[in-house]
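Hey,
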Amino acid sequence: MSYIKVNHPQIQIDIDVDRLHQQGFWIPNRLWATTNYVFPERVKRIELQKNAQFPVLSPAVQDFKDWANQTLVTDTDLKNFLTANYPTPTYLDAINAMILDANASINAVYQSLTFHQRMLLIFNMTEVYGDTITQLLNNNQIEWLEDSDEFFDLINAIITNSPQFNYVPLSSTPIAQVGTPFNGLMAVGMGSETGYFLLKDQAFNRQLFSILDAWHTYLGSTDSLTYLDTENAQQPGSWVSSQAYNAGVWKDFVIPNRQDRYLGFSSWTDFFTRTFQAGTRPFPPKSDSVVAIGCETTPWIYDANISPEKNALWIKGNVYSLADIFNGMSDAQGNLWADKFVNGQSYQGFLSATHYHRWHAPIYGQLIQSQVFNGAYYNGSDEFGVTYFSEPEGFGETTDTWLGTASQQYLAQTAARAIYIFHNDSVGYVAMICIGMVEVSSVNIDPGFQISASDQPKDVDAGDEIGMFQFGGSTHMLIFENGKVNLEQWATDINQNNSTVHNLGSTIGHAVS
């Protein structure tokens, strides 16, 4: 009763209730996100309503809701897409359209199951969530959300709580999707056709920034320590539970004060950006010819010949646009950094929410320049959405994979990112790009490593801490000049079904001799 394999001419999904996680553990597919994250949150809302305890929206969410209701869509692509059904669409209309679109796509997946498979899934959910689950299956239809009121209520529930360690109710696996609850909520909507247009809209993204900013403020407060409470270590969602320890949440990390109720952490953010114990992640001895990896990394993709063009080549699945990645970033003489890396190599990896989220310099040499670019938070490539049911060759994941997984190359060009340019005479120029995925909107360059085009270069050693993500899972790139560096086999011969993590400080390449 733990395994369901579903094959369909257009939809192939693997409903394995013991292995519903995707590669990297924190990336849910849409059916997983609906049944294992959105459904339990909807159940909580129904139970509150039964007791006449209607949620009061926080000021940030109420402002967001009011803005959506009162503001007309001006983005040309989104407006044109909505006009057939909404002659003068507001952003609330766009949200409702995204919900209808996403409900249709997730229900198509659900209806592709046999009657026996659906009954089995319902039985499993009822066992965990109780009879309330039947209210979420209207006429044997499955929905992502009921309406926009529920959308705002669930956002409110997220930003007034800290992320939980997820010991998934329908799974015996200790860890599945961890620490990115907005991801769990938005995984379905962002994969819809409406969601694609809405979530790349600049005005909408500014509102999302305000929501995430309010949440980050909460996560930096002592109120966010609920799931780090050692006096209630086995509560559901606890980061100090036996399940969390067994999943490696604390492996090699510093615990500031084992005698303190919250282990010496001042907030959830303080815990999330925890440091490694000394000596557990050594960097190579000093040498100009070596390049180390500056993040914990699970290899994702390698490109041996990066394209310079500013166009939609990422739609093909493997091709990077240097112009979009660097977004016009230039040196003091106005030379575009993108031009420096034409036909060069790139390595891209990702790190999960349980991993170390600080960044370190990859070479011995100089930091020439650094810069942060803001971007879209939940926008993914339309090539990989359920609307098109297209699986890029070589991705090795089902068409129902969470959109952000298959869109990591696209995110490198559109998401919030910090870009560092390093140099020494042996390896040449090396760009390190740290990219926020979904709610990882905070990419922070350490003040000592904020170098503008007009500043003098800063001497660095491999291993110097240069910045951090403050929340969630994320992806990162190293980009090399053409003909300057030979990369290790693990960085070029990548099997995306292999989730092996390579430690911070591991050698990724050497200068061409």
